[in-house]
Amino acid sequence: MNDDSQHNDRIISQFTRWAQPFADLPIHSAEDGMARTLAAAVIAPTDTVLDVACGPGIVACAAAAHAAHVTGIDLTPAMIEQARARQAAAGLANLDWRTGDATDLPFADASFDRVVTRYSFHHLREPGRALAEMRRVCRPGGRIVVIDATPAPECQAAYDRMETLRDPSHTSALTLDQLRGLGRIAGLEEAIVDGYRLEALLATLADADDMTALDTMFDADIASGEDRIGVQAWRGADGVRFLFPISIVAWRR
């Protein structure tokens, strides 16, 4: 088994276990982040949309209210099951779902008007390859949107250590400059750069077995007053809370 296959197996294992909790987390449907995502995508009523690494279909179902048709694709079958359940609960007819790899999309060139992905690039060994695939399946004149956590350069290593403790399928979170650089390499024209902070409760995002090491890391960071992880963490009555630094970058194809 090669490294890519092993990593994909790690993703499927992690998100099969987390499919239901991930779908139920309120932060994934937060109104401000979703509004900014849809604004960056500029979806017209005649547009076809592809949501890459769609997870439980949160972005895809939100986009379906604005588009002619939306396709969601994810590596993990359990996530596609959650997406279908979300579609059914919302009574949406203009969606379909596929199981597949973000770095090898099973679609013809120029198949979609809008291609988006949210919170996925930090799971990929080759995010540039995924962006090249997103460009390939996007029609000329279309738009590609990537939303993900982007730590400050000086915090990137500590942020990655935290995320790897929390989620073994994490590879590395790009800085904003690195993400924008992938767009330049892909030959895309940058259209929008936006961002937001997403408040999270650590205990809802990690397995219980991982909490001791994570608590130790966050307590040290909070005590230092230096925000070395780059997430402005604090300890509240319900545990450690922090702010994911999320960036949105949209490009014209």
TrEMBL record:
Xref: InterPro entries: Methyltransf_11, Methyltransf_Superfamily, SAM-dependent_MTases_sf, UbiE/COQ5_MeTrFase_CS
GO molecular function (one): S-adenosylmethionine-dependent methyltransferase activity
Q: Which UniProt keywords apply?
A: Methyltransferase, S-adenosyl-L-methionine, Transferase
**What residue stretches are annotated with the Methyltransferase type domain?**
50-146
- SUPFAM superfamilies the UniProt entry points to: S-adenosyl-L-methionine-dependent methyltransferases
Annotated GO biological processes are: methylation
- State the CDD domains in the record: AdoMet_MTases
Give start-end ranges for the coiled-coil region(s).
Answer: none
Keyword Methyltransferase attached: yes
State the name under which the record lists this protein. Answer: Methyltransferase type 11
User: Which source organism does the UniProt entry give?
Assistant: Rhizorhabdus wittichii (strain DSM 6014 / CCUG 31198 / JCM 15750 / NBRC 105917 / EY 4224 / RW1) (Sphingomonas wittichii)
> Lineage of the native species?
Bacteria, Pseudomonadati, Pseudomonadota, Alphaproteobacteria, Sphingomonadales
